## 1
Amino acid sequence: MATITPRNYIDGAFVDAGSSDLFEIENPATQEVIATAPDTPAAEVDRAVQAAKAAQPAWEKLPPQARATHIRQIAAKIRQNVDRIAQTITREQGKPLGLSTLEVNFTADYMDYMAEWARRIEGEIIASDRPNETIMLFRKPIGVTAGILPWNFPFFLIARKLAPALVTGNTVVIKSSEETPVNAFLFAELMAQTDLPAGVANILSGRGGSTGDALSRHKDVGLISFTGSVATGARIMEAAARNLTRVNLELGGKAPAIVLADADLDLAAKAVYDSRVLNTGQLCNCAERIYVERSVVAEFSEKLAAHMKATTFGDPMADRDVAMGPLINKAGRDKVAALVDKALKDGAEALTGGRIADRKGWHYEPTVLANCTADMAVMRDEIFGPVIPVQAIDSLDEGITLANNSEYGLTSSIFTKSLSAAQQAMRELRFGETYINREHFEAMQGFHAGRRKSGIGGADGKHGLYEYTETHVVYMQG
Ligand code: NAD
């Protein structure tokens, strides 16, 4: 595959790196450098924000349906380029090609889904205390929005930030992750082939401490929509505080799955397994700690281990059938290894895996840990890798207490055939999402939002769309 050199897309034009520092992008499966990208300095960030600001009033004046037409044009371009984009994602992020292809198609579907909201953006008419008065509540765009992205679903997350912003009449500046700027550049290239007005959507490459920080503290940004780690979310909030800029934060997770003795254990093991190997376990929403009733914990863990043992992994560009690629980088791989090593030292037992894979690239063996306890870091900290720690519980009450006792609150699940157990879980689990008898994975028409340190605000569906609006109430007499 030919080398692609990402460039910034500002005000409808591609900009050469100029004197910007460059950083290298590595294929995590092979450690081969595949591209260099610019670390965009504050002055260029400002140029992108000013372009978005200048373009916003005319964009807002367009009827929403006209804005939706532009979004659909981009979706159509994406569908014409699925293979090229999918290969790029796989090379720079490491997920199997099948999953990259799914990500690209899902991105196009998401753009179309958000475009459908154009005819459904609604205000309210409120009864007045006065005669001859009408009170009207409008939903209006915020202005310039910023999207700061992680690397795990890098192409889809552009759409998750860009599409709701544009359909509601905002303009946008996106910053890709420094791990995955190449696919974002392809997104910009496709936008440039449509007649989207200049400045409406700008895409920048850069590191967090430079480009990301400049965007977060820019006074003309009205909303920062960020997906990434808790630590960075806190830093962005601090930077945003100076200008009282709104934040929408989609942060980390440590999702519990509770498996009761009456559950369909085959279904439960497969659902937990599926979400854990997807993207090599690098998902904010997938089950990261499993609480299983003691009478079935051995049987369930064996089923899980059988799935994990059969998992193929390797370089997804060389072997298109692998179920799992590498972790994103050395730091990610070493974090997984340190959590597992510590758990093994503290009494956990590896039913399979438990070590760094003996091959080039940042691979880790698919792992199931039995005999885990609540005080182990592997049960508390986000692993973000192909590791499933299992802890025995004596009751549903205990499972719910352990599940809720976490600084994270994004997703959760329960596997049971009991209606009353499922209802108790619905009432008592304090999470943004609960899945009953299925894998953790949100739908675009839902609302993906975390509690506690998993975030502020959310994405998707009507509620996610309205995060990109602010209200304007008009009192009209006469
Ligand atoms: P990260 O926080 O390291 O980086 C995310 C982005 O923030 C990058 O673009 C980075 O350049 C930027 N950044 C870093 N420092 C910054 C600063 N000071 N100011 C502004 N921007 C800065 O996260 P990551 O490693 O890319 O992603 C993994 C994390 O993302 C995991 O914790 C995962 O759970 C989370 N995540 C959450 C969701 C969700 O929907 N809740 C979805 C995907 C990933």
Note: Residues 8-251+454-477 form a domain with the Aldehyde Dehydrogenase; Chain A, domain 1 fold (CATH 3.40.605.10).
## 2
Amino acid sequence: MKKILVVEDEGKIVRLIRDYLEKEDYSVIDARDGEEGLTAFQRQEPDLIILDLMLPKLGGLEVAKEIRKESQVPIIMLTAKSEEADRVTGLEIGADDYVTKPFSLRELAARIKAVLRRSGGSPEESGVIDRGGLYINTESHRVELDGEELDLTPTEFDLLSTLAENPGRAFTRKGLLEEIGRYPGENMTRIIDTHVKNLRKKLEGSEGEKEFIETVHGVGYRFRRD
Ligand code: CA
């Protein structure tokens, strides 16, 4: 049974999420402020974290930053409509997805399922991609650059393996979102751009001149063909 940590100070929202997810066969633990959230993350080792951005004591972005220092556990942010800038920052820090309040529990559950599936690897796409010093194992979700293991979030991993499986092929941002099983919704351009920016940073590695992901102006992105 997958264990989900809900970090949210509004008791009513916590109860709704808990009831729904327990019926879906998840085990749910909760924390009511940012500090408690970090403690629960360290002690309970959840499989996924649902993280509200507006939290007492320690804000959601700070919590996400702390978690990312030691773990790539999937994080789904709960955000308000007015928090667009924070949402982008959250994705930059390494959160995997977000839902905007008010959200439907069905939608949240669908996002959870998608993020967990991605982080657990999808068996039908098993294989190894090895290109120019970059090694991607889509079964074990391991990525190495010049022999050094890289820490990627599930979304970054999906984007990179989608691009690397099709070197030379240009993808639109919308196409990429579809490939990784995300709905092409609002702000999709910025979200893909943010993830690609993070990926490029992680891919700089020892040989800085290698640009694996190329920008295709007016279209989107493609993986470099050697
Ligand atoms: Ca809150």
Note: The chain has two domains: 3-120, 128-223.
